[in-house]
């Protein structure tokens, strides 16, 4: 295959480009041959900052052993080694909590599928110390939400975010709710969808049929099937602009496993994630030297796939953090446009139609008795216009 496209990385910081070279497997000969260029003028404090921002310092820590001495300052190695040890301890704590949660929920006859955390670290990297996780994310049937909350409250967890909703729009506009344990300093996210809506995705029953049992724990802990995991990881990473390399590294690790790419391709097309799947594969092949199935190589010859991948480089150039407010206005505007560009025609139509459904802000602007909430549909446009007028009128 002749590659007629290239990603423009000219504005990506040298420190991050070095990190990318270090993350590539079996890349030591290239690094040694080009060390005078790769390691020249590196701001090592920025290198550490980038490694921590992108959550790839555990893997970097393991790659340092194959690099010639004196290329990386000792203080950098010591700092990332300390962070690596802290992360290992955190992952062990999360693993224990995950197994306990799985046992308690199963005994209460609530099925759950862990989406991220230690099970993914073990499944993709073979070692929980090589991936970071700040919380436990698991998916349950939507009808079990109240039962799950009751269990977590008994265990000492407190709801950390309260979703405003009108006419049950929480069921499709949102996809998870967060709980925090003040003593354990542990955070859990209960999902009832893989991604926020609107949009189609596999049902819990479908995902449960294709589930796998993790080899990490003694008590049964279940995670997504490999093909469903790819669908989830690319949709999640794309939704955040691949602003952290850890998500792309997950895709790289998954491409090296025994995965049915034919089934994966069908899932991507069925649920309209073909664009984000193509974007992810272009990024991981170009930035991390991933190898992909021959069946998917036509994606690398697709101009749109490369265009979407180039759009994601914006986030690597600026070390964007989409998880902490306030998000810079220029980044927010770019991110909104980028998410729309990733949508299929059907997803764009659903996105536009979703604005016709009332928002909780409508109920705040014009409080009505619950039995009259249906009136928010015909009043939606008028309330929206009034809210905007009032907003601009305020000092």
Task: Give the gist of this structure.
The protein is 54% helix and 6% strand.
How are the SSEs ordered, and which strands pair?
Elements: H1 14-23, H2 28-33, H3 35-38, H4 44-53, H5 57-63, H6 74-107, E1 113-114, H7 118-125, E2 136-139, H8 145-154, E3 158-159, H9 170-173, E4 176-181, E5 186-191, H10 204-209, E6 212-213, E7 222-223, H11 226-239, H12 245-255, H13 261-270, H14 274-288, H15 303-318, H16 329-342, H17 345-354, H18 360-365, H19 376-393
Parallel strand pairs: 2-5
Antiparallel strand pairs: 1-2, 3-4, 4-5, 6-7
Helix pairs in contact: 5-6, 11-12, 11-13, 11-14, 12-14, 14-15
Explain what this protein looks like in three dimensions.
Pfam families: NTP_transf_5. This is Nucleotidyltransferase family protein. The chain has 2 domains: 14-352, Beta Polymerase, domain 2 (2-Layer Sandwich); 358-393. It is globular, with a radius of gyration of 23 Å. The chain has 395 residues and is of the alpha+beta class. Strand 4 and strand 5 (186-191) form a beta hairpin. The protein is built from 19 helices and 7 strands. The strands form 2 sheets. Strands 1-2-5-4-3 form a 5-stranded mixed β-sheet.
């Amino acid at each position: 295959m002749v590659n007629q496209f290239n990603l423009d990385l000219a504005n990506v910081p040298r420190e991050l480009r070095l990190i990318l070279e270090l993350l590539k497997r079996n890349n030591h000969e290239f690094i040694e041959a080009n060390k005078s260029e790769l390691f020249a003028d590196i701001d090592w404090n920025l290198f550490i900052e980038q490694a921590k921002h992108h959550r790839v310092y555990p893997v970097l820590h393991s790659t340092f052993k194959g690099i010639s001495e004196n290329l990386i300052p000792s203080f950098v190695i010591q700092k990332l080694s300390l962070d690596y040890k802290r992360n290992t301890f955190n992952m062990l704590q999360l693993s224990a909590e995950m197994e306990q949660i799985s046992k308690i929920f199963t005994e209460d006859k609530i099925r759950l599928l862990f989406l991220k955390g230690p099970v993914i670290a073990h499944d993709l990297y073979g070692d929980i110390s090589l991936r970071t996780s700040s919380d436990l994310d698991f998916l349950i049937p939507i009808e079990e939400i109240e039962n799950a909350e009751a269990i977590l409250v008994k265990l000492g967890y407190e709801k950390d975010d309260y979703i405003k909703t009108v006419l049950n729009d929480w069921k499709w506009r949102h996809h998870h709710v967060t709980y925090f344990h003040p003593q354990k300093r542990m955070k859990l996210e209960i999902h009832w969808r893989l991604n926020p809506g609107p949009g189609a995705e596999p049902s819990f029953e479908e995902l449960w049929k294709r589930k796998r049992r993790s080899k990490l724990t003694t008590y049964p802990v279940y995670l997504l099937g490999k093909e469903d995991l790819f669908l989830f990881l690319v949709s999640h990473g794309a939704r955040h602009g691949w602003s952290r390399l850890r998500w792309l590294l997950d895709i790289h690790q998954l491409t090296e496993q025994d995965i049915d790419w034919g089934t994966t391709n069908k899932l991507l097309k069925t649920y309209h994630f073909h664009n984000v799947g193509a974007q992810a594969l272009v990024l991981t092949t170009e930035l991390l030297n991933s190898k992909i199935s021959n069946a998917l190589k036509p994606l690398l010859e697709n101009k749109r796939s490369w265009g979407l991948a180039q759009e994601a480089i914006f986030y690597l150039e600026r070390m964007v953090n989409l998880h902490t407010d306030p998000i810079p206005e220029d980044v927010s505007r770019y991110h909104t446009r980028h998410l729309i560009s990733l949508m299929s025609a059907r997803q764009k139509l659903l996105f536009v139609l979703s604005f016709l459904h009332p928002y909780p802000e409508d109920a705040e602007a014009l409080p009505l008795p619950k039995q009259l909430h249906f009136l928010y549909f015909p009043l939606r446009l008028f309330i929206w216009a009034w809210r905007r007028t009032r907003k601009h009128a305020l000092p």
